[in-house]
Amino acid sequence: MTSGTRVGHTFIVGARRDFLEINWRGAPIGSVSDLRPAHAPAPIGFAHRGARSVERENTIAAFSRALLLGASGLETDAWITADGVVVLDHDGVVGPVWRRRAISAAARSDLPGHVPSLSDLYQTCGTAFELSVDVKDPRAFEALVAEARSAGASRHLWLCYPDWKLLASWRRDAPEVRLVESTNLNKIAGRLDDHLRCLADSGIDAVNLHRSQWAAQLVAQLHGTGIVCFAWDAQTPAVLREMLGMGVDGVYCDDVEMMMSAVDAAAGQRLPICDIGQTIAKASPTIDDPDIGPM
Predict the structure, then answer these.
(1) Cα dist. 27→4, 85, 127 in Å?
(2) Which helix (H) or strand (E) holds 56?
(3) Helix (H, G, I), strand (E, B) or coil at 197
(4) Distance CA 24, CA 7 (A)
């Protein structure tokens, strides 16, 4: 397979996307001559489980409030019920402590009213946002993509999973969907360069790391292979400024207003991708916690 290359704000995709050129938002463009040396796009501000600082997480109320507050992206977690419905919940279990039941063993109609389906999300909130989904149950993949396609939103869907090989197996069935390796640097076997080449050649679009594991040099390294960089757990103004100053392409935060204020401030200061490597400090990734894992 042919890996992708970033030029300005556009990701030029090789054989894995049928030689189409698609821009950041996924809309086809005419030809390579249409590419302009524009600045990199504004980073995506993913509202972590919706506006969970003011509403119950992973609910329609939380997602709606996040969009009302200006979030450009939503983050959630997906499971599939026993009758094949994709629903959004973090833990994947429902019921009181003494009678816990796995969502995968329950019918959609048996779930509490606050647990929305993916269809509920699209019907209520529309599709004018990026959606980052932590795929908790890989069996949800087909139904998840089908639902997004039905809503006309599959090009704005980012599927996150820790196993890049499983992600790569999804590429053929979902060529338009964005695939994200949610990982921990300590869990990457072998040389990082080799791992990144595997990701690019397998059609993986992005890497999602805990904010403590990012450094400007690492961001530039991933951008050099055409891979987008996401930082989760960016929960303070200082951390948001640090991540966005490094050039990450998306941040995850519970406080939507704080996050979008930082994103808006950073958007006007973005350097073209080709210039990032010439301006960053020579820093190495710092790993604070060897047990850090995906969100």
Answers:
(1) 16, 28, 14
(2) none
(3) helix
(4) 11
| Cα gap 93→80, rounded to integer Å | 11
CA separation for the pair 155, 247 (Å, rounded) = 23
d(CA 231, CA 250): 6
Beta bridge partners of 21: 12
3-state helix, strand, coil in the chain (%, to 5): 35, 20, 40
C-alpha 154/C-alpha 169 separation (Å) is 17
Residue 232 CA: distances (Å) to CA of 6, 45, 208, 250: 22, 10, 7, 8
What's the structural domain count of the chain? 1
Q: Is residue 135 situated within a structural domain?
A: yes
Per residue in 266-291, pLDDT (tens digit) is: 887 654 433 333 333 333 333 344 44
Q: Which of 253, 249, 243 is nearest to 230 (CA)?
A: 249
One-letter identity of residue 186: N
Question: Could you report how far apart the first and last alpha carbons of the chain are, in Å?
Answer: 30
pLDDT given for residue 41 in this prediction: 73
Among 16, 20, 17, CA closest to 1: 16
Secondary structure (3-state) at 194: helix
Integer CA distances (angstroms), 274 to 154, 270, 271, in order: 28, 11, 8
pLDDT tens by residue, 69-114: 999 999 999 999 999 999 999 999 988 777 889 999 999 999 999 9
pTM for this structure?
A: 0.80
Here the CATH number for the domain that contains residue 64 is 3.20.20.190
Q: Does 21 score more than 50 pLDDT?
A: no
Q: Identify the domain containing residue 263 by its residue range.
A: 41-279
262 domain residue, yes or no: yes
